[in-house]
Write a structure and sequence with these properties.
- This protein folds into two domains: 254 residues, FAD/NAD(P)-binding domain (3-Layer(bba) Sandwich); 84 residues.
- It is 34% helix and 26% strand.
- It is built from eleven helices and 20 strands.
- The strands form six sheets. A seven-stranded mixed beta sheet has the order 5-4-14-15-16-13-17. A three-stranded antiparallel beta sheet has the order 2-6-3. A three-stranded antiparallel beta sheet has the order 8-9-10.
- 39% of the residues are buried.
Length: 385
């Protein structure tokens, strides 16, 4: 959606295909980081964007055993917004649609699912689309695969990928929130268990991290046991865990960390999770996808105004975004293997890793994780027009 908005703004005729009738999907990436908010500022949209309901997170905190610690301080970032905005992704997408419709070249079609690629003479020339009215073809100078980690476009293109692995999956749920709970987003870590609570004003968006492939085992132990594990990590929720009445109230996110070794074919480019599925660590996936979109618009906009981008144009997007993708995934894998795997496999009381201890002794160091999470390795910027 972001790429479509930016290209239409530059005068390129675009069509965004969305297979659902609306954007109301729970437990999607709802963290909008300072790097993305800076793009809103560069577009002149920040003030209007922040009128949408959201919460502002200026610090990241965690609890290891009975010890509370601050992990990141965003107040020193070199951005206009020194916080993470927590906003439902459907509000973000609806905002982009509203802004995009200011431009006559911007088109969105709902309930239109791209199911296959159209190929002619070794080149992708469009997609086959399924709609309530039936099947049809849409032809284009360029097809962008931005359909997530289970991308149909990526699969149909046969682009090679490398699986980097993940030791965990995540169970997502909602639990009501009270004013007395406090307003900070927290991570609770204890022997063998990790619970993340994200403040969504009137409810907590809760995530229980479990070992990879253990969802069936968790369900077999029973819902009362699961509720008890949540209450043990966050005792103030003890009188509310019964809100989880059925396993249908709990969604499974199968965590994958992978990336394409080749993002494009003639006439086709993949970006976002379709090009590189990210771990949920740091909540950076949506922001890397936005950065991909900005880089693609900057590089491909002029070529699309002339006609059809060349293979070199498409490879230039991958070249631009490979370093931040690899660096971010390397950092996530380090945390997965040295912290999360260790915690999930532990039955003994935990001790703070040395780096966490340094963050508490030297507050200045909290700027490092804030910079890595909030801005990233290579932030993109809007080209003026």
């Amino acid at each position: 959606m972001m790429l479509g908005f930016l290209l239409a703004r530059a005068g390129v005729e675009i069509l965004v295909l969305e297979k659902h009738a609306d954007f109301l999907r729970d437990f999607r990436g709802d963290t909008i980081h300072p790097s993305t908010l800076e793009l809103m500022y560069e577009l002149g949209l920040l003030e209007e964007f922040l009128k949408r309901p959201h919460q502002e997170l200026q610090e990241l905190r965690g609890q290891v055993g009975n010890e509370t610690l601050t992990l990141a301080d965003f107040s020193h970032l070199p951005t206009h917004c020194k916080f993470i905005a927590l906003m439902p992704q459907w509000d973000f997408l609806n905002f982009l649609v509203e802004q995009g419709r200011r431009y006559p070249a911007f088109h969105v079609e709902m309930q239109a699912e791209a199911t296959d690629l159209l190929n002619e003479n070794g080149r992708v020339v469009g997609v086959r689309v399924s709609t309530p009215q039936g099947q049809r073809e849409v032809r284009a100078n360029l097809v962008i695969g931005a359909d997530g980690r289970h991308s149909v476009i990526r699969a149909r293109a046969g682009l090679p990928s490398v699986n980097l692995g993940a030791p965990m999956d995540v169970l997502w749920m909602r639990i009501s929130r009270r004013p007395s709970d406090g307003d900070q987003t927290f991570g609770h870590i204890d022997r063998g268990k990790i619970l993340v609570l994200i403040n969504r004003e009137d409810y907590w968006q809760a995530a229980m991290v479990i070992p990879k492939g253990a969802a069936d085992e968790v369900r077999q132990r029973g819902l009362p046991v699961f509720r008890g594990e949540i209450a043990a990590l966050a005792p103030f929720l003890r009188d509310r865990v019964d809100e989880l009445r059925d396993w249908k109230d709990i969604s499974l996110l199968t965590v994958a960390v992978d990336r394409l070794t080749q993002w494009s074919r003639p006439g086709l480019l993949c970006i976002g999770d379709a090009a590189h599925a990210m771990s949920p660590i740091g909540g950076v996936g949506i922001n890397l996808a936005i950065q991909d979109a900005v880089a693609a618009a900057n590089i491909l906009g002029p070529a699309l105004l002339r006609g059809t981008p060349t293979a070199d144009d498409l490879r230039a997007v991958q070249k631009r975004r490979t370093f931040p993708t690899r660096a971010t995934q390397r950092l996530q894998l380090t945390i997965q293997n040295n912290v999360i795997r260790r915690v999930l496999g532990s039955t003994k009381p935990l001790t703070l890793p040395w780096f966490f201890k340094l963050l508490q002794r030297i507050p200045y160091l909290r700027r490092i994780p804030a910079r890595l999470i909030g801005v990233g390795f290579r932030p993109e910027h809007i080209r003026r027009r």
